[in-house]
Write a structure and sequence with these properties.
CATH superfamily of the largest domain in chain A: Butyryl-CoA Dehydrogenase, subunit A, domain 3
Distance between the termini of chain B: 29 Å
Oligomer: heterodimer
Bound molecules: flavin-adenine dinucleotide
Structural class of chain B: alpha+beta
Number of helices of chain B: 10
CATH class of the largest domain in chain A: Mainly Alpha
Number of domains of chain B: 3
CATH architecture of the largest domain in chain B: Up-down Bundle
Strand order of the largest sheet of chain A: 1-4-5-8
Helix content of chain A: 40-55%
Strand content of chain B: 15-25%
Order of helices and strands of chain A: HHHHHEEEEEEEEHHHHHH
Shape of chain B: globular
Largest sheet of chain B: 7 strands, mixed
CATH architecture of the largest domain in chain A: Up-down Bundle
Number of domains of chain A: 3
């Protein structure tokens, strides 16, 4: 199918479906706005699934469409252009599903992929713990098998995004007693709705509670709800993180570009566009976005078969998160004192609300998925071969 | 979506160029070796990459040229390549008429002649900044004025010169032999010894009619396009220089021991090297992307100007940052003549002022983004 026909198909579908009872979801539910209409956003995911828009890049054998990269990218761009809401199913669709397809057994694939693809089951990521953040291998949550083979878990996860909206959680836990570091970990799939699990919201600086503490007190899951073998959890966990830099990051750039446009409109409306320093910074933001885009294209296009270090992939997370944070600062400098006042929920406050979200929520961008400092360590050690400290 | 991935030929070209320049770089040699290096480069065919086959070239494009420029920047080679290939050929390709291209390009593609380009100060192509004037003189022309800083001004055999035509005929492009009567050239003592410059005074230089190369009315737009493409290639060169600063720094700090350990193992040092890499790779991605889109002919003039400006700003900032960090992280030896960081520091400074400074380029972008109706 040629790209422009495909784009039109997406745009037409979005125009027809993101209306009526879904109209209020336009531009909602993105980072920093996760509390907007969660139940309705799940229904929207099902609408999307029925339209065939979930699992675009998955192999057809797993119910996906196996679309080429260019069309996946085109979909993300048209989706954002149409104001498509934040994807509440992204942890399942873009992180767990590719991991199951790559490393899961056929039974696990059959059991879990349909729920993700059809927007029926939602997933949370249970990696971080109070004592294991940047040093993820310091995990102490324990897991063991009962006589019937079922897995039990004991411990605490923290900063778990959307756990309160999720049905399942994938958990990295220590299965070999007395083991340390990357050895002896297992990657389990655990249902959240059970007596052995408690979820406590944690209020964020934005006032919302997108993330949670998840307590496991003898929580249970089936014997076969493990990806990889017992003790191989680290390998699986890292493979999953590798999928964080997929095509979806290019979709994210459409959000960025839309945010920059909101900022430009705001600057033109309030006269900030005449300030020479603001002008320089807006130009820099545009230049930085070109950098992210070409870097992202290079990352996705260069042959992935090579074993050599891919510099453009190594720098990507650090580059986009810091660009986004700077965009938030610029937005607030453009808005001025009016930025002190929390934007309302009405449609007229849409732009202001989004720009405030960029400013506040982007403080998290440089923390989750590997902090700035950890990213620089990785770049220096893997990218430049510099010695460990 | 034009591909950013390099094909096998492009990878091979990059390796050949890198290997050759690693062995034959002349940045620290006496100037009398320069002619030999240029001859070798010409024999390798590199001066012909972007010239279409009908004019005796290889008919490759911006991607290959950018790979060459990146390696030139890494080695700081002192050759007529930038002035002859990027500037002079570029002006001919985009601002000269068909007959003039036919006549002038083959020698430049073969590398049998070296050339330079004269626009306004800092290679500003805008008509208002041109400092030379052309007056009709019988069938021919007479050029007057000064160009304070001409790249390769002492060594170039030919100059392609943009001048304002007196009497309202806009901008014209002329070919001027460097030994023309009435042309006075004075070598300048420059900080960046790998980018020689001279002052040129045109005290009534007479040219015959054929010396005017443009199709009247089209030179200004053609020169603007040539300038944007030169910005892209200069950015590629800056990326190469910045990458070399990082390579020098990781090599030196891996060897240098203080407090009983390699300096490279200190996190403060590692993070700064990582930051260098982030800036280099971002600039490299944009250079690669813009070059691919130029090769695919998918950019109109406004988009080309904007994208080339983005590449230039990123590369300029990256190179200055990396050169300055290279000096700092080398410690005392970084301040010596003997070690290479100083040469990159000077080249980075040079490059930051030609073909549009970051401040001007940002303002031009801001105008596109903010002032449109
Ligand atoms: C909004 C948000 C959502 C999240 N969602 C999830 C989720 O869904 N699931 C999940 O598992 N986790 C999630 N996280 C957790 C996130 O992955 C961790 O916060 C992150 O890994 C950092 O760990 P930490 O918070 O313990 O900070 P720490 O590791 O304690 O770091 C504190 C500071 O020390 C620095 N530091 C640490 N080690 C080094 C070092 N070696 N060198 C230099 N500096 C260092 C850090 O960079 C940081 O500045 C989320 C976090 C946020 C903010």
């Amino acid at each position: 199918m040629d790209e422009s026909t495909f784009r039109k198909e997406v745009a037409d579908w979005m125009a027809a479906r993101l209306s009526g009872r879904f109209a209020c979801l336009k531009h909602r539910g993105g980072p920093g706005d996760e509390e907007a209409w969660p139940a309705l956003r799940k229904e929207w995911e099902q609408e999307m699934a029925a339209g065939g828009w979930v699992g675009l890049g998955w192999p057809q054998a797993h119910g996906g469409r196996d679309l080429p990269l260019a069309l996946q990218l085109a979909f993300h761009e048209e989706y954002v252009r149409a104001g498509g809401p934040g994807r509440i199913g992204h942890i399942g669709e873009t992180l767990l599903a590719p991991t199951l397809i790559a490393l899961g057994t056929p039974e696990l694939q059959r059991r879990f992929l349909p729920g993700i693809r059809e927007g029926r089951e939602y997933w949370a990521q249970g990696y971080s713990e109070p004592g294991a953040g940047s040093d993820l291998a310091a995990i102490t949550t324990r897991c063991w098998q009962d006589e019937d083979g079922n897995w039990r878990l004991q411990g605490q996860k923290v900063w778990t995004s959307l756990a309160h909206e999720s049905d399942w959680i994938f958990v990295l836990a220590r299965s070999t007693p007395g083991s340390a570091g990357r050895e002896g970990l297992s990657f389990l799939l655990v249902p959240l709705d059970q007596p052995g699990i408690e979820i406590h919201p944690i209020r964020q600086m934005t006032g919302e509670a997108e993330f949670n503490s998840v307590f496991f007190d003898g929580a249970v899951t089936d014997a076969d709800c493990i990806v990889g073998k017992p003790g191989e959890g680290w390998k699986v966990a890292m493979a999953l993180l590798g999928f964080e830099r997929g095509v979806s990051t290019l979709g994210q750039q459409m959000h960025f570009s839309h945010e920059l446009q909101l900022l430009i409109d705001a600057a033109r409306a309030n006269g900030a566009a005449r300030d020479p320093v603001i002008r320089q910074r807006i130009a820099d933001a545009w230049i930085g976005l070109r950098g992210l885009r070409d870097n992202g294209l290079r990352m996705l296009e260069e042959d992935t078969g090579s074993t050599t270090v891919r510099p453009e992939a190594l720098i990507y997370k650090y580059a986009w998160s810091n660009w986004h944070r700077a965009l938030g600062e610029l937005a607030m400098d453009v808005i001025g004192v009016a930025g002190d006042v929390r934007a309302g929920e009405d449609a007229g406050s849409d732009a202001l609300r989004r720009l405030q979200q960029v400013f506040f929520f982007s403080r998290a961008d440089t923390i989750y998925a590997g902090t700035n400092e950890i990213q620089l360590n990785i770049i220096a050690e893997r990218g430049l071969g510099m010695p460990r400290g | 979506m034009s591909s950013l991935a390099l094909n096998d030929e492009q990878r091979a070209l990059r390796e050949t160029v890198a290997d050759f320049l690693a062995g034959h770089g002349n940045a620290r040699k006496e100037a009398d070796s320069d002619a030999g290096l240029w001859r070798s480069i010409a024999e390798l065919g590199w001066a012909a990459v972007q010239v279409p086959e009908e004019f005796g070239g290889l008919g490759l494009g911006a991607v290959e040229l950018a790979l060459l420029m990146e390696e030139m920047g890494r080695s700081l080679a002192r050759t007529p390549f930038f002035a002859t290939v990027v500037l002079a050929q570029g002006a001919l390709l985009h601002a000269a008429g068909e007959a003039a291209r036919q006549r002038c390009l083959p020698a430049l593609a073969e590398g049998t002649r070296s050339a330079t380009l004269i626009l306004g100060p800092g290679l500003d192509a805008r008509a208002g900044s041109l400092t030379l004037h052309a007056r009709r003189d019988g069938e021919g022309w007479r050029l007057e004025g000064e160009s304070a800083q001409v790249l390769d001004g002492s060594s170039a055999e030919l100059a392609y010169v943009a001048a304002r035509v007196e009497g309202g005929d806009g901008v014209a492009l002329f070919e001027v032999p460097a030994d023309a009567a009435g042309l006075q050239r004075t070598a300048l003592e420059v900080w960046d010894l790998t980018r020689p410059q001279a002052h040129w005074r045109f005290a009534g230089v007479s040219l015959d009619a054929a010396a005017r190369l443009d199709v009247p009315g089209s030179a200004a737009a053609g020169l603007a396009r040539a300038q944007a493409l030169a910005m892209l290639q200069l950015a590629a060169e800056q990326v190469g220089g910045a990458a070399q600063c990082l390579a020098l720094t990781t090599a030196y700090t891996a060897e240098r021991v203080q407090f009983g350990r390699a300096v490279a193992s200190f996190q403060a040092v590692k993070h700064r090297c990582a930051e260098m890499m982030v800036r280099i790779e971002t600039a490299r991605s944009v250079v690669r992307g813009v070059a691919a889109r130029v090769a695919a002919a998918s950019l109109d003039d406004a988009a080309l100007a904007a994208e080339a400006a983005a590449a230039r700003v990123l590369a300029t900032e990256a190179y200055r940052y990396c050169a300055q960090e290279a000096i700092q992280l080398h410690g005392g030896v970084g301040f010596t003549w003997e070690y290479d960081p100083q040469m990159h520091f000077k080249r980075a400074q040079w490059a930051s002022q030609w073909l549009g400074t970051p401040r001007l380029l940002r303002e031009a972008l801001a105008a596109q983004l903010l002032d449109a109706a």
